[in-house]
């Protein structure tokens, strides 16, 4: 799936952020699939009222269905409740460290360019890359638009995922996200699993080909991840262990403390710190 470097100005004017979301979230949420089709019609009306092209909405929602796998995954995130040692074992932390060191060596020039541009060293980027998709080995097989729409409809985190749905519409409208795109269960995209809003905000062209492809280009995926961390307060040259200045940026990546600790630990082992 390709991500264009810049969305068109016209479409950006059509899909705005939180103001649109606040109004769109008035569509009636639900806890089962029973009300999903009614919610779609309500959402389409409200989104059209915010200036989203009606034809685009018809095209998108013609592909969308309620995703029970997404709901199951959203309710079953038990690994974040594990101890650090249990989490590392479950996520294969030792393997990520071992493979990560080889990845750093074999892609030294890429990581050097990224650190020069964004100030983020290889270790935490490789830790995220390894934990999210096994270094791009498996990025998910759920229909992205259905996953995001399902969570926008679901009452648990309606406002948050309504914003993600608007971002996904923005990506489709700029021909940056295919209607049949597939990814992780919550609508995450690419080798480091960006939600649609983060693609819009932090997607970066790491290989210089004029496109942003978080699926097929490791350079784009890793540069975008570094850009995300910088956008969350990363300070060049500062430490990233708990209590150090850049740990806060890692906290921006995932709200689970055990995940944050794992990124810091794995990254330090790879960086030799």
TrEMBL record:
One of its GO terms (molecular function) is peptidoglycan lytic transglycosylase activity. Residues 36-240 form the Transglycosylase SLT domain. Residues 1-26 form the signal peptide. It holds the Pfam family SLT_2. One of its GO terms (biological process) is peptidoglycan catabolic process. Keywords: Signal. The keyword Signal applies. PANTHER family: LYTIC MUREIN TRANSGLYCOSYLASE (PTHR30163:SF8), MEMBRANE-BOUND LYTIC MUREIN TRANSGLYCOSYLASE B (PTHR30163). This is Lytic murein transglycosylase. It comes from Ciceribacter lividus.
């Amino acid at each position: 799936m390709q991500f264009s470097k810049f969305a068109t100005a016209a479409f950006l004017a059509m899909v705005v952020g939180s103001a649109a979301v606040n109004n769109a979230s008035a569509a009636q949420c639900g806890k089962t699939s029973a009300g999903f089709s009614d919610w779609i019609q309500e959402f389409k009306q409200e989104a059209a009222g915010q200036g989203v092209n009606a034809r685009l909405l018809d095209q998108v929602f013609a592909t969308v269905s309620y995703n029970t796998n997404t709901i199951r995954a959203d309710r079953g995130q038990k690994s974040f409740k594990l101890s650090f040692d249990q989490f590392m074992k479950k996520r294969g932390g030792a393997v990520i460290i071992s493979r990560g060191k080889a990845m750093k060596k074999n892609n030294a020039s890429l990581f050097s360019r990224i650190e020069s541009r964004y100030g983020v060293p290889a270790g935490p980027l490789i830790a995220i890359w390894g934990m999210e998709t096994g270094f791009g080995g498996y990025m998910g097989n759920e229909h992205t638009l259905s996953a995001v729409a399902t969570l926008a409809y679901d009452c648990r985190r309606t406002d948050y995922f309504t914003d993600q749905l608007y971002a996904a519409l923005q990506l489709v409208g700029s021909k940056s996200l295919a209607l049949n795109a597939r990814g992780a269960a919550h609508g995450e995209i690419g080798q480091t699993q960006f939600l649609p809003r983060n693609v819009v905000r932090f997607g970066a062209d790491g290989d210089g080909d004029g496109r942003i492809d978080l699926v097929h280009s490791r350079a784009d995926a890793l540069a975008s991840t570094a850009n995300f961390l910088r956008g969350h307060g990363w300070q060049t040259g500062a430490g990233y262990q708990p209590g150090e200045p850049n740990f806060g940026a890692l906290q921006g990546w995932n709200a689970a403390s055990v995940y944050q600790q794992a990124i810091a630990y794995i990254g330090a082992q790879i960086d030799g710190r």
